[in-house]
Amino acid sequence: MWLVKTVRVKAFEPTRVKKQFMALLLENSRLMNEYLSLMQAHQTTSKQHLHLLSYERLTQALKLPAAVVQTARDKAVQIYRSHLAMKKDGPDCKLPCFRMTTPVRLDRRCFNIIETKNKLTYVAAMSVKGGRVHVPLLGQRYQYRQLRKIVAGELKLGSVELVKRGKDFYFHLAIKKETPDIDPDYSYTPVGVDLGLINLSTSVILKGGRPCNILFQRGGNALEMRKRFATFRASLSRAGKFRRIRETTGKERRCMRDINHKISKSILAQANQTEKPIIVMERLTYIRERIHRGKKLNAMLHSWAFAQLQEFIAYKAAWAGIPVMYINPKYTSQQCNKCGFTSKANRLGRSFKCGDCGYELNADLNAAINIAKAYKNFAPGYRSGALGARDSALTLQARA
After folding, report:
1. Do 264 and 377 reside in the same domain of the chain?
2. Domain interval for residue 77
3. How far apart are the first and last CA of the chain?
4. Superkingdom of the source (predicted)?
5. Taking 70 as the threshold, does the pLDDT of residue 13 lie above it?
6. Which of 348, 376, 343 is nearest to 362 (CA)?
7. Residue 2 belongs to a domain
8. Which residue among 142, 159, 178 closes a domain?
């Protein structure tokens, strides 16, 4: 199975190539708009048909590398097909128009990464209008580590996009990695992950039936941040400053994304502390329909990025070769992990006290242990058992 992720690196000191980059962006947008017009006029999305209609004329008129013309055509075809699909749902859907800052897609024919002995070790060699240029790449340790693996052949470089953001230019590198398909068995060690608000995540490793390596990810700062943004947006709404509301919403989303990245990274580091780990999480389908906690708390829960956090954990796990399992969330927070007694009365806010055996524990930790135990309780393909009957088989997968 091939996994793909994107790494962003900055073009260092682009002043000397700024004219070439701007010319490439401009000609690329003109080219894609031309292809959209052709597809609309001839009612076709066939790449071969478009090639016969326009390839020679456009390459001669724009003086662009052949690979850039072909990648622009392919990208325009993808966007036009998406437009046609959206038009079926909404007939008023307008044909997109590309601006001069539309990112340019490049492939291995017109883009390559070279390792040098200079202070800035990695250089992008790329084709532009009028020739080929070499641009030093600037990044942090993570980016340099990925570039080193690309040059060494450990990772495969896919398509690349040249993106202009403000005064700077960036390369978005799609890197690929092949991982073997994993069929987990009982020899794997489960890492149960419970998501919440007070503790954004509670994770625990279950070794020999005993919990160890417990990790709480506190959510106090995130909650306070969300409340501040909500109060600020309310004041802006009363003042009629709707543009500022959109700006603050984007900032809040970026903050939550950063928090979720850090949490998922910590959970993967925790999982890597044991041999043959498998991460076990709740299936959160229809979670918003199941939440009824009052107006204010409902608004907070419904806007929480649970799915995004799970996606980050899943793709990081897949990249590391760790399988991920999803279970039915029914009764995970109500069942005693010691005796199995299940009751709503067991859950007392943030605490858990079993009404049968009297066992006491943090409620989130109890749920995480139950989630981890669910892996041991189910044989592969088994459709019912502990933690309640399920409407479908367990999802055993490593997401890309």
Report:
1. yes
2. 14-104
3. 9
4. Archaea
5. yes
6. 348
7. no
8. 178
Strand partners, 176: 4, 156
Task: Provide the whole-model pTM.
Answer: 0.77
Rounded CA separation 71/69 (Å): 6
Nearest residue to 207 (alpha-carbon basis) of 379, 376, 381:
376
Give residue-wise pLDDT tens across range 91-112.
Answer: 777 888 888 889 999 999 999 9
Backbone angles phi and psi of 91, in degrees to 5: -60, -20
- Extract the tokens encoding 115: 């390792």
Phi, psi of 219 (to 5 degrees): -115, 10
- In this predicted model, what pLDDT tens digit does every residue of 244-298 receive, in sequence order? 777 777 788 888 889 999 999 999 999 999 999 999 999 877 565 555 555 665 5
pLDDT band at 336 (very low <50, low <70, confident <90, very high): very high
> Residue 378: what pLDDT?
61
For the residues 329-340, what does the mean pLDDT come to?
89
Q: Across the strands, what pairs with 174?
A: 6
pLDDT (average), residues 47-65? 87
Whether residues 251 and 341 fall in one domain: yes
Question: Quick one: tokens of 13?
Answer: 């000191």
Q: For residue range 77-86, what is the model confidence (pLDDT) as tens digits?
A: 999 999 888 8
Q: Could you tell me the CA-to-CA distances from 306 to 122, 186, 281, 309 in Å, in that order?
A: 37, 28, 11, 5
Q: Which amino acid appears at position 99 of this protein? A: R
